[in-house]
Amino acid sequence: MVEDGRFSERLKAATWQAHGEAEEHGFTRALLDGAMPVDGYAAMTAQHYFAYTALEEVGRALADDPLAGPFVDPLLFRVPALERDLEALYGPDWARRVSPTPPTATYAARIRQMADDPAGYVAHHYTRYMGDVSGGQFIAKAAARAYSLPRGEGTAFYDFSALGSLPRFKEAYRARLDALDLDETARRAMIRETGLAYQLNTEVLADLGRRHASGAAA
User: Fold this and answer.
1) Which Pfam families does the entry link to (predicted)?
2) Residue pair 114/67 in contact by the 8 Å Cβ criterion
3) Cα–Cα distance for residue pair 22/111, rounded to 1 Å
4) Which residues have CB under 8 Å from 10's CB, separation 6+?
5) Is the pLDDT of residue 175 over 50?
6) Whole-prediction pTM value?
């Protein structure tokens, strides 16, 4: 592994395979191809809610941390949008109808452990937000088309218009990664945590696929 150059590029290269596995997972492909029934999409949205609740709780706790703080941006917070989506997909009693699957519970627990590891929190922040700012846009379009969802209903999670230009946002995000004050040991640890974050997310998707196939609820 090359150990000089931009850390953002090194992080991307080191986790490219894991990123690809999550992006090309059968569950994700079915969503993008319009082959996933709406209950499968709703189930995924429910699991996002539990993961992002954990992520944003930790983010608020680390808002003043010199390392993690620059990444904590309320404009990114997804929980309010997810709540709107869940109401659109499940109805006003959505909170009683959804619960975290075991893989999601494991994922959320790992995120909460990062309250004591600011660089680890950034690893999970990068994995989730940068992925949804980028690839999530394709899922939103596919879902709206496949399920005939009214504009913004059920897909508010993917609306990052408050950020302005997404290319500029991503460029600034990568600059913050490059500016992280981490020694080589800490950088390696953050790369490992990023890989774990992708793995945990992929396990959530795999479980959703099995549950959807068996008709289990979210």
Assistant:
1) Heme_oxygenase (PF01126)
2) no
3) 18
4) 1, 2, 3, 187, 191
5) yes
6) 0.91
